[in-house]
Amino acid sequence: MKNAVSSRGQILNECLKALGLVLEFDLNDHPTHQHSVRVGESCVIIGDKLGLPSKKIQQLYFAGLIHDIGKIGVDINILRKKSTLTKDEYISVQQHSITGGRIAAAIPELSDLSFWIRWHHERWDGSGYPDKISGNDIPVEVQVLSAVDCFDSLQTPRLDRDRYSLEDALKIIVSQRGASFNPDIADLICDMTDKGEFKPEESSDRFLQLEKKYLINNSADHGENYWEGLGMAGLYPILRLFARVIDAKHGYTHGHSTRVSILSKFIAERAGFSTSDIIKAEVAGLLHDAGKISIPHEILDKKHDPDSREWEMIKNHPLHSFHILNKISSMNEIATITKQHHERLDGSGYPAGLLEDNIDILAQIIAISDTFDAITSERSYRKQSSFDNAYREIKNGLGRLYNRELGKILLDTPPVYIRALFDNHIS
Fold first, then answer.
1. Are 269 and 279 contacting, i.e. CB atoms less than 8 angstroms apart?
2. At what angle do helices 2-26 and 35-49 cross, to 10 degrees?
């Protein structure tokens, strides 16, 4: 049991790191060492200095990784705006802390974090948002997260402004003692910076020591039965969180990842695949579009066909999916499936132009499900089409674009059955 718990903690750690990377891709903040990772690491260092319990330090790290996940629902044009925000725009930005809290609340392990993420823009003097709490009514973990987030954000290049120097960032932190931040925590940040315990753009030696103490668990071998047993079932809420975040970026894709997942599982079951492969198809369907987070709103939401430059950006999203998911040790095969879901049997797909024998059979299932739902869902550039048109397009591509046997499973399923399938599984 201990190995299982350790393994789950390790996977949760990896999932949240990958989820943090999803946000960095969306905000174009993805150099070698990301803001979310730096915030998480710095929170661990300060939490240890304050003598917080081990569990709270680990939770603080997770909170740092995903504290800004609610920004996924904020219009990127507002986030990159260099001039003063309008009242409505500012309210939209403030909403990200509430959205992030709600996202975190969906995961049992993150229930405490949902409050911390909701409150990470509260201020010591009560002038923050969204709930105007103040002083020690703000949990100490949130006091740490808030100060560290501001300190690192000031030193991070942003869409709406240039980065501040370390010296200027420290001056701002000092100026906000007793206003934005607990004075003791502000002083602690200054002292630890002077001692080199925080290092911009890299993990400090101090964090690497504490990582072994608080965050690194012995990871059990993720064999074939991991995908059949309680491990995958327990991880599923985290994967649903991924899909929710991915679909949140573009309103018209709402529910797309879930529907592709449901349909892929259905096809795999009807085709007689093993339990392990059925679950892999389901999970890959849920996460297949993770890399689309790297595509700007103005391209995916465009009313007309993309130009050649924009099309190249779109075609790179399976590679981004691969890089995000490959950071999770038990997801290596899932990462490969997602990378190949736009490949086609005749080599006309992307990103690698693979031919039939080189395309994972589960990726071939995702290709069919994804095509079907894309046709039958509304997009920014066209209205949704009928099930009949989707059937017709897939039928015309059998043996050339899509696997003939797997495609026929879908074509032999009446529309009323598919509608009921979706309705039964989407709350």
1. no
2. 130
User: How do the residues of the chain divide into helix, strand and coil, expressed in percent and rounded to 5?
Assistant: 65, 0, 30
Let me know if 9 is exposed, middle or buried by CB neighbors in 10 A (0-12, 13-18, 19+).
middle
What does the domain layout of the chain look like in residue ranges? 2-214, 225-425
Query: What's the longest Cα–Cα distance across the chain?
Result: 68
What pLDDT, in 10s, does the model give residues 180-193? 999 999 999 999 99
Q: What is the pLDDT of residues 182-241, one digit of tens each?
A: 999 999 999 999 888 876 666 778 888 898 888 765 444 455 555 555 455 556 666 666
Buried/exposed code over 403-420 (b: 16+ C-beta within 10 A; e: otherwise) = beebbbbbeebeeeebee
Report residue 418 as tokens. Answer: 């598919």
Task: Indicate if 225-425 has the same CATH topology as 2-214.
Answer: yes
CATH 1.10.238.10 fits 2-214, yes or no: no
| Structure-block tokens of residue 258 | 């879930």
Contact 60, 115 (CB under 8 A): no
122 backbone φψ class: left, alpha, beta (φ>0; ψ -120 to 50): beta
Omega before 130 cis (within 30°)? yes
Helix (H) or strand (E) holding 149: helix 140-154
Take residue 376 and report the two structure tokens written for it: 């039958």
Taking 70 as the threshold, does the pLDDT of residue 283 lie above it? yes
For residue 53, say if its preceding peptide bond is cis, omega within 30 degrees of 0: no
Among 232, 262, 260, smallest CA distance to 247 is for 260
CATH superfamily of the domain spanning 225-425: Hypothetical protein af1432 (1.10.3210.10)
